Amino acid sequence: MSNKSAIKEKFVVPGSKIGVIEEFMAGHGTYEIDGIIYSQFIGDARTDSKYRTVSIRPKISPIYPLEGQEIIGVVEVVQEKLAVINIIKIGNNVLSKPLTGFLHISASSPRYAKNMREICKPMDRIRAKIISTSGGIIRLMTSDHNLGVLKTFCSNCGYRISLERPVLKCERCKNIEKRKLARD
Ligand SMILES: [Zn+2]
Q: Which domains does the chain show, CATH number per domain?
């Protein structure tokens, strides 16, 4: 004989009513107003009638950029001292909508670089770290060894570039490029 499970799951959205405090203890991802328990997230409301608890397992958790997190991004614009990066992944979370981050030349390389174009170019895929989010502005750095360009294209002909240490060379037009590469 199988035990009838005390656990039930139901899909909910933020603001969905999921119970009352006489029935359940409001757990993770819920909030309570006037004795009624609501969901904070889109996800599965998990009610356990044995332990009388309810909690939400979020389906899409909001992703906030935090200092120290690693990101993956695509270089959008490169100016002399600044690059604008479209952040597509924070930690292991792929963003449904890219965020904008800024990489200043002083935080781009352990060595002195005169021009941001020695560090990265538009369309390059880079790994960077968030150093600040103050004022809602995401500032990035790539000067650590494991950070920098992961994938790049020839600025002359657009072809994929391969690393022939110590230089980056276009497989097609033999153009030599310069980047701040991630070590791996
Ligand atoms: Zn080329």
A: 7-58 (2.40.50.100), 70-177 (2.40.50.140)
